[in-house]
Amino acid sequence: MADQRIGALIVLEGREDLDRHVHGGIELDGKITIPLLHSIFNTNAPGHDGAVLSDGQRILKFGVHLPLSTNLYKLSRGGTRHTAALGLSEKCDALVIVVSEERGTISIAENGQIKELESHSDLKKHLDDFWAEYYQSKTTSNKQWGERRSLKTALAAGSLAFILWLSFAYPSETVYRTYAVPIEYSNLESTSYALQDTVPLQARITLSGSEQAFRTFDPSELIISFDLASEEVEDLELDIDSDNINLPAGLQFFEASPSVLQLKKQYFVPVNVPVKVPVTGTIAEHLQFQPVVPSPEIITILVDTAAATIDSVLTEPVDLSQVEEQTVQQKMLQLEGDSFRLSEQASPNITVTINVRKIQS
């Protein structure tokens, strides 16, 4: 398929369940054959852009959509297929094979990493290693077990296994697990409120429940949410509890760290201040430097009434060593700290006119 530039995305499942990570697809449950793979990934086939899911012997589904990775820095090259392959490998123990139709290369994604293979024999080695870890031992042990066990022994072993499964799959004791959960603040008035120090991006949440409840739970769906629209007090204390966490069924909130977030109300007043343009470097000897003119020359800044006063605002510096003639540049305003903010009408971009003239010899 790589030699013929036929794009493909093939998933070999490991021990972990894939259902909660993948979406869509068409049930097939057919034996893996080369003609079948070719027909699925034919560009005229309706499911050729999706992935094939396999248990090692059969194709379970095709046309399946995989989660896309957000770690794009790991992808030196490749498109959506490669991003999807990496995304699934970050969430489970599956092995994902990608064939690039643009470059005719083969890549594999496993354990949150993706790499391009140098040869077809490299793919065989990875498949052999994966097969040995996830399939071969299971197949061999099942065959040997069937050859040497009598029916009576098999029934006794099966009964014991069922009892043990009931004991461990549905334990009665409570399990506690801790997750890093993102925090979102809605209706936070940018000109009236500000969080003390830096805005907490996440908190550590401990949940309790049964082992079975945790097995069907996706931690990535957890979020802590605060709606500040109705808050009118001077200083807020936001308690993290079950009321502001989207808890799944079967799990309970136990504790949070930090358990309380501090919100401090700030007052800002508008102040008109001049814009100043700093310069660096030295102008060429045959040129004479004229004053730099910013536009606008005056902007409106919102200043915290409890902070120090401000008499001007600086832009990014102009490098005179790079100036050969009169030129116009765009420079960003440099506002540092939480005590000063631009008004909604003000733009952070300043047009800077650099005037020079040649010196007559």
Discrete helix count: 5
Model regions low in confidence, pLDDT < 50 over at least 5 residues = none
Strand order of the largest sheet: 2-4-3-1-5-6-7
Helix content class: 10-25%
- Class based on secondary structure composition and strand pairing: alpha+beta
Notes on the structure:
It catalyses: 2 ATP = 3',3'-c-di-AMP + 2 diphosphate. Keywords: ATP-binding, Nucleotide-binding, Nucleotidyltransferase, Transferase. Pfam families: DAC (PF02457). InterPro entries: DisA, DNA_integrity_DisA_N_sf, DNA_integrity_scan_DisA_N. With 361 residues, the chain is of the alpha+beta class. It has 3 domains: 123 residues, DNA integrity scanning protein, DisA, N-terminal domain (YojJ-like (1, 3-Layer(aba) Sandwich); 91 residues, RNA Polymerase Alpha Subunit, Chain A, domain 2; 91 residues, RNA Polymerase Alpha Subunit, Chain A, domain 2. The strands form 6 sheets. It has a 7-stranded mixed sheet, with helices on both faces. The radius of gyration is 31 Å and the shape is flat. The relative contact order is 0.08.
